[in-house]
UniProtKB/TrEMBL annotation:
GO molecular function, one term: glycosyltransferase activity
CDD domains: O-FucT_plant
Source organism of this protein record: Urochloa decumbens
GO cellular component: membrane
Domain of life: Eukaryota
Membrane topology: Single-pass type II membrane protein
Homology family: Belongs to the glycosyltransferase GT106 family.
Pathway(s) served: Glycan metabolism
A Pfam match: O-FucT
Protein name: O-fucosyltransferase family protein
Length: 470
């Protein structure tokens, strides 16, 4: 009798709780947990109703690609922001090709700037992982068992530069299967420019243009910079690669004092991974292998027809020689600005001493500019050029430095009048404005080919449209 009474009482309690909304059937409870839809929004979504809460739900994730992983790939990227960016795109592509699980890449902290930023300080990690889940598995860290194992022994190597997919299948895949975890200690230029299957080229683009999204903090400040510049009308971004590390590494000292030349040379010898030590600056400049000086770029901008009222945003780190070296450029173009002039110290403070995060702001502004002009063909110049091509072949003036040095010397030596100099500069750059063009292929000389990320032609439409890379 007591058991029967308890059963009746329990039934009544459950019914009352259910009526009061204190008890939910499991199917509805499941809708409210684990990241699914829940509550009013969840029920409305199940019923097909459009509520404000339902509209705020995160977008549906792409389905996971199910595959048997052949091991884990750890990567330590080297270089600055854009060298690492291209390297990350390559590493994702290689991991997908070999059916590996990729660990979120580690970023270079040994470069000239010694930036302590991690991947998640620059890029949106969750977006990176989720947007590519239909291609490969990406994890934030190795499983604990493998973490302990790799602390004792980790198979580490740099892949051979400019390699095709066969190299990775025949040489790298067996190593990954054998060691379970393989570590690439370099990521720059480890995949060929040309001759790869279209699927791999398209995946490189998808990673670059869709998966590598900057953090919300960088995106918000970058949009503010762009909005401020656009309120003043059209603007030009000048990527003035006249920084201490570039001059030291390249050995380019044109326009520098003897004291500055000695300082730059000492710095080159201080970094063992900069292998070329003895450099003839004069010869290198005549070959077009030096960044243009601020004084030279001023003459080139005038020759190209940019007037004194042109708004120019300088995208760069600290200019070597400081304000003294910018004096001529400022005199010619008074509306010369940098992020430090547009944003307040408080706004920039979280990004100070983080060169890659500051470079990310410049990257966003460079993409949005009406015209982009790099003074040197380094990694940022090339990656931005390719991204602007992808955005509809936006105007990018790729300077022919070898021709310009020749013309500058003739003009400054009195052999050319200003009109002759200006006409020659314009004529030599008519076909260097970011128009659609075929990427150059030189069999057996991959370093001399056009860089994939400067012209990812497989991902571009012939008339400025985009190919579907999803």
């Amino acid at each position: 009798m007591r058991a029967a009474a308890s059963a009746v009482l329990w039934t009544a309690v459950v019914q009352l709780a259910s009526i009061a909304g204190l008890f939910r059937p499991r199917v509805l409870a499941d809708c409210g947990g684990g990241g699914g839809v829940g509550g009013v929004a969840g029920l409305a979504a199940l019923a097909g109703e459009d509520t404000g809460a339902a509209r705020l739900s995160p977008p549906a994730l792409v389905p996971k690609r199910i595959y048997k992983s052949n091991g884990y790939l750890r990567v330590t990227c080297n270089g600055g922001l854009n060298q690492m960016r291209a390297g990350i795109c390559d590493m994702v592509t290689i991991a997908r090709h070999l059916n590996l699980t990729l660990v979120v890449p580690e970023l270079d902290k040994r470069s000239f700037w010694a930036d302590p930023s991690d991947f998640g300080d620059i890029f949106d990690v969750d977006h990176f992982i989720n947007s590519l889940r239909d291609e490969l598995m990406i994890v934030k860290e190795l499983p604990l068992k493998l973490q302990l194992r790799t602390k004792k022994r980790l198979y580490s190597m740099p892949p051979v530069s400019w390699s095709n997919e066969t190299y990775y299948l025949k040489r790298i895949l067996p190593l990954a299967r054998k060691h379970k975890v393989i570590h690439f200690d370099k990521s720059d230029a480890r995949l060929a420019n040309n001759g790869l299957p279209i699927q791999l080229q398209m995946l490189r683009c998808r990673v670059n243009f869709q998966a590598l999204r900057f953090t919300p903090q960088i995106e918000a400040l970058g949009r503010k910079l762009i909005s401020t510049l656009q309120r003043s009308g059209q603007f030009v971004v000048l990527h003035l690669r006249y920084e201490m590390d570039m001059l030291s590494f390249s050995g380019c000292t044109h326009g520098c004092s003897s004291k500055e030349t000695e300082e730059l040379t000492r710095m080159r010898y201080a970094y063992p991974w900069w292998k070329e030590k003895e450099i003839d600056s004069v010869v290198k400049r005549l070959q077009g292998l030096c960044p243009l000086t601020p004084e030279e770029i001023t003459l080139v901008l005038k020759a190209l027809g940019f007037t004194k009222d042109t708004l120019i945003y300088i995208a760069s780190g600290e200019i070597y020689g400081g304000e003294r070296r910018l004096a001529v450029l400022k005199a010619a173009y008074p509306k010369l600005v940098r992020k430090e002039k547009i944003l307040s110290p408080d706004e920039l403070r979280p990004f100070q001493n983080h060169s890659t995060q500051m470079a990310a702001l410049d990257y966003m502004v460079s993409l949005a500019s009406d015209i982009f002009i790099p003074s040197y063909d380094g990694n940022m110049a090339r990656v931005v050029e390719g991204h602007r091509r992808y955005m509809g072949f936006r105007k990018t003036i790729v300077l022919d430095r070898k021709k310009l040095v020749e013309l500058l010397d003739l003009f400054q030596g009195g052999a050319l009048s200003w009109d002759e100099f200006s006409d020659a500069v314009k004529e030599s750059h008519k076909s260097r404005m970011g128009q659609p063009t075929e990427r150059k292929i030189i069999p057996g000389q991959p370093k001399e080919e056009d860089y994939f990320y400067a012209n990812p032609q497989e991902c571009l439409g012939s008339n400025g449209g985009l190919r579907d890379i999803s």
